[in-house]
Amino acid sequence: MENIQLQDYIAITQIAFEWADSHDKKDWDRLRNILAPNLLIDYSIVGQQCFPHMKSEEFVSMISSPNFVGDPLVRTQHLIGSANYEWVSDTEIVAVHQIRAAHQRYANLDTTTVAYRGHGYGSVKHWYKKLNGVWKLAGVRPEMYWSEHDFDKIFSAPA
């Protein structure tokens, strides 16, 4: 197995940051900019389906949906920790990042009252592909080791 070159390491860690921060800021154009045209998406851990061949725009639509992270009552912070990298080829790297994903669902749009908290702890597997000389995110699969509070109520309508 080859070691990852510094410039490749920097590129994919920047993509991981953009992936997390674009979710937290609900900046869907930032998310679009890091995506490969086709992705493997498996958010089944949070009630979504597994899509082995999803178009990038479909992924952005799913994530930004009012039933998912795009819900204006939902706020998140995805903190990425250490990672393990696998150099697959000159055009493919697989990484498993440690992650803590804090979630809050507010009772109303003024975000003064928290209705539910739900935090997930685990890892997220990312597939990276180099397309036309540029690294892009080509797949996402979170794995939750455990959660706290009311994680199951974050992406549902308030009670």
TrEMBL record:
Binding-site residues for substrate, renumbered to this chain: 43
Domain of life according to the entry: Eukaryota
Family (UniProt): Belongs to the scytalone dehydratase family.
Keywords linked to the UniProt accession: Lyase
Matching SUPFAM superfamilies: NTF2-like
Keyword Metal-binding: no
Magnesium among keywords: no
Family annotation (InterPro entries): NTF2-like_dom_sf, Scytalone_dehydratase, Scytalone_dh
Active site: 78, 103
Record-level GO BP terms: melanin metabolic process
Domain Scytalone dehydratase-like: 3-157
Protein name: Scytalone dehydratase
Entry GO MF terms: scytalone dehydratase activity
